[in-house]
Design goal:
This protein has 65 residues and is mostly helical. The chain has four helices and no strands. The longest helix is centred in the middle third of the chain and has 14 residues.
């Protein structure tokens, strides 16, 4: 599932709203371990979306375990 979500996020990275929606879905579907892996991967590759990543992680939109 993690690799699939990486693929999806990479595909929509240039579309802010889709990126946000897919990131929320990804974080809700993944377990805690895969959430951490995904966040590390995102931070390495999508510095231009750091604001969205931080927004999703720091809100109640995603129940981080």
């Amino acid at each position: 599932m993690l690799e699939h979500q990486k693929f999806v996020l990479q595909a929509v990275a240039d579309q802010e709203n889709l990126f946000r929606k897919e990131l929320i879905k990804s974080m809700n579907w993944l377990d805690e371990n895969d959430q951490e892996k995904l966040l590390n991967w995102l931070k390495e590759r999508f510095n231009n979306r750091k604001d969205i990543i931080d927004e999703i992680v720091n809100t109640s939109l995603v129940p981080l375990s």
